[in-house]
């Protein structure tokens, strides 16, 4: 399977959540639109990640696209853990629909209502129904991909 997986260069996303007075966010590679009508999007969160601990009780999640030039933002959300760092104190954001943190520098974003969770092993899938979205008018159309961020070591604590 490694020979197949090693050829993938999928887009990366920052997923944000807010629940029970806490905010969290992480860099995610496992995500995709999974239905056309109705539009649905699935994001997979690591069970080892603080974002999952917040997201599992959240009604809505934010999904953000970054440009390749935004590697520093990807490093913040992918290479640091919210157990040790307040990521939102280090970047611009605003409360979006249902209080979900929306990163104002993201190229594009949407907030989705969590329809269901699916246990996939070491990750949990969150099926999202989009309820709000936006783009930064001056944002490039290119998207941060796995190959752009291969040197970012995951920030969540090891099991």
TrEMBL record:
Keywords: Oxidoreductase. InterPro entries: Flavin_Rdtase-like_dom, NADH-dep_flavin_reductase, Split_barrel_FMN-bd. Pfam families: Flavin_Reduct. One of its GO terms (molecular function) is riboflavin reductase (NADPH) activity. SUPFAM superfamilies: FMN-binding split barrel (SSF50475). Residues 137-159 are annotated as: Disordered. The keyword Acetylation does not apply. The keyword DNA damage does not apply. The lineage of its organism: Bacteria, Bacillati, Actinomycetota, Actinomycetes, Kitasatosporales. SMART domains: Flavin_Reduct (SM00903). Residues 5-153 form the Flavin reductase like domain. This is Flavin reductase like domain-containing protein.
């Amino acid at each position: 399977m490694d020979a197949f997986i090693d050829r993938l260069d999928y887009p990366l996303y920052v997923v944000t959540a807010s629940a029970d007075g806490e905010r969290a966010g992480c860099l995610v590679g496992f995500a995709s639109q999974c239905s056309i009508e109705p539009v649905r999007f699935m994001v997979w969160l690591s069970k080892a990640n603080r974002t999952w601990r917040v997201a599992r009780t959240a009604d809505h999640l934010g999904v953000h696209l970054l440009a390749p030039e935004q590697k520093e933002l990807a490093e913040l959300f992918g290479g640091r853990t919210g157990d040790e760092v307040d990521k939102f104190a280090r970047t611009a954001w605003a409360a979006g629909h249902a209080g979900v943190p929306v990163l104002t520098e993201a190229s594009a974003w949407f907030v989705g209502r969590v329809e269901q969770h699916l246990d996939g092993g070491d990750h949990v899938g969150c099926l999202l129904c989009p309820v709000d979205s936006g783009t930064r008018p001056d944002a490039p159309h290119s998207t941060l991909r796995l190959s752009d961020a291969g040197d970012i070591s995951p920030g969540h604590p090891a099991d």
